[in-house]
């Protein structure tokens, strides 16, 4: 679809930066929706997000617009896996924080409530979640346990007089200061199992403090949560989340979502780098005419295309129900490794202007670091692949 805007530099992506025609794999109705939503994200979100990112401020108006375009309901509206993935690509291409919000919302919040929740929980929360009128936060990581959370989780849940009493602390939890509830993972003192609980954020004893001064994902409101004797009704336990194994299946899918984000951020970096190379002149001519600059553009597009193609094949096996943790981990690790390299090339291609978020590339450069580390760090995802191919675990 030539002629689409490419961020604030004005030039069209060439040709959509989708050299391998991945978008053509969508069925025609989904393809039309894809172009419509991409147009909206490029024109209404991409440029607008920069100031919010600079101020570490959450764009509530933009979130409502995302809801109007159906992006709060991707998980439950019958979209194909490829369409959902390409929505995450285009969201990340416009703003990585909003793609993080939409991804966590769909994969982890809608996914968990709809698959592991009770009828009553679904009736109470799903309608508002689907339109982004309600938000949930996914609260797994703790101050002392990140990579080793499955074995190390310390937050406790005690059933007492028909109520659960939750105690503990969580760190880095996205949207925790603005969400209606947090999906809190806590260890039941009775049987030692990790279980999922809906904790409304206005319960006494729940406090969330925003983490400021992040180098990336600055629009996402990440927070430290303290849970001090928070009492919730017994039926706030997700009935399907009474051990960590079901949860793990959804965590596998959310790793795949980060792979899509990694592809999207590379398309964004390519858009900006290409436009800049064509507009900036040094030594009396455009940067785009220099061989070393073209090499960087070719490498960036090659990385982005390899990422998109890998993710498209992952979508196929996911749609067929064949996705396993090893493939999700390999894709997440590989794409985010490529994304980090791609934004670094883009950063250098813009020279000094690559340092400033005003030119978008500085924003992408910071955001790529988060993709590399969350949903299982690069190293941990690599070790999951290593374990699968050797039969030996290097991280237990
Ligand atoms: C911006 C942001 C948003 C986030 N959002 C959420 C959220 O919404 N909800 C949520 O629950 N969590 C969230 N997280 C947490 C994220 O998932 C963790 O940061 C991540 O899992 C890594 O844990 P950690 O930071 O505690 O690092 P650590 O586990 O302390 O790791 C530190 C370093 O050591 C390495 N390492 C650890 N163990 C090993 C090993 N055995 N072998 C080799 N290397 C190892 C890691 O790869 C890493 O490089 C977010 C994080 C960030 C930064």
TrEMBL record:
Its cofactor is FAD. Transmembrane segments: none annotated. The keyword Ligase does not apply. One of its GO terms (molecular function) is acyl-CoA dehydrogenase activity. Residues 247-389 form the Acyl-CoA dehydrogenase/oxidase C-terminal domain. Residues 137-230 form the Acyl-CoA oxidase/dehydrogenase middle domain. The keyword Oxidoreductase applies. Its EC number is 1.3.3.6. GO terms for biological process: fatty acid beta-oxidation. Keywords: FAD, Flavoprotein, Oxidoreductase. It holds the Pfam family Acyl-CoA_dh_M. Gene3D superfamilies: Acyl-CoA dehydrogenase/oxidase, N-terminal domain, Butyryl-CoA Dehydrogenase, subunit A, domain 2, Butyryl-CoA Dehydrogenase, subunit A, domain 3. It comes from the Bacteria. It is an enzyme of class 1 (oxidoreductase). Belongs to the acyl-CoA dehydrogenase family. This is Acyl-coenzyme A oxidase 4, peroxisomal. The gene is ACX4.
């Amino acid at each position: 679809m030539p002629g689409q805007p490419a961020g604030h530099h004005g030039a069209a992506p060439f040709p959509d930066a989708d050299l391998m025609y991945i978008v053509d794999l969508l069925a025609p109705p989904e393809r039309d929706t894809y172009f419509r939503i991409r147009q909206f994200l490029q024109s209404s979100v991409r440029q607008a997000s920069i100031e919010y990112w600079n101020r570490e401020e959450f764009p509530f108006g933009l979130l409502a617009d995302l809801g109007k375009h159906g992006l709060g309901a991707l998980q439950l509206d019958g979209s194909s896996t490829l369409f959902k993935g390409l929505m995450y690509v285009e969201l990340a291409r416009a703003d990585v924080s909003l793609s993080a919000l939409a991804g966590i919302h769909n994969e982890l919040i809608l996914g968990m409530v709809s698959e592991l929740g009770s009828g009553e929980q679904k009736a109470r929360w799903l309608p508002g979640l689907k339109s982004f009128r309600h938000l949930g936060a996914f609260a797994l990581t703790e101050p002392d346990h990140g990579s080793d959370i499955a074995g190390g989780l310390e937050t406790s849940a005690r059933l007492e007089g028909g109520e659960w009493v939750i105690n503990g602390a969580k760190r880095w939890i996205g949207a925790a200061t603005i969400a209606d509830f947090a999906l809190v993972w806590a260890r039941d003192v009775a049987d030692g199992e990790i279980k999922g609980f809906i904790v409304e954020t206005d319960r006494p004893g729940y406090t969330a403090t925003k983490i400021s001064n992040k180098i990336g994902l600055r629009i996402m409101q990440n927070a430290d949560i303290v849970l001090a004797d928070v009492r919730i009704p017994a039926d706030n336990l997700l009935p399907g989340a009474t051990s960590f194994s079901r949860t793990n299946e959804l965590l596998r899918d959310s790793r795949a979502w980060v792979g899509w984000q990694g592809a999207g951020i590379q398309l964004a970096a390519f858009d900006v780098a290409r436009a800049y190379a064509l507009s900036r002149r040094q030594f009396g001519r455009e940067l785009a005419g220099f061989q070393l600059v073209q090499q960087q553009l070719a490498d960036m597009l090659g990385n982005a295309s390899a990422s998109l193609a890998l993710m498209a094949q992952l979508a196929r096996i996911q749609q067929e129900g064949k996705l396993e943790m090893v493939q999700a981990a390999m894709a997440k690790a590989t794409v985010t490794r490529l994304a980090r390299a791609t934004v670094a090339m883009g950063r250098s291609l813009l020279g000094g202007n690559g340092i400033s978020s005003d030119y978008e590339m500085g924003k992408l450069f910071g955001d790529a670091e988060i993709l590399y580390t969350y949903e299982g760090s690069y190293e941990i995802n690599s070790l999951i692949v290593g374990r699968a191919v050797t039969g030996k675990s290097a991280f237990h």
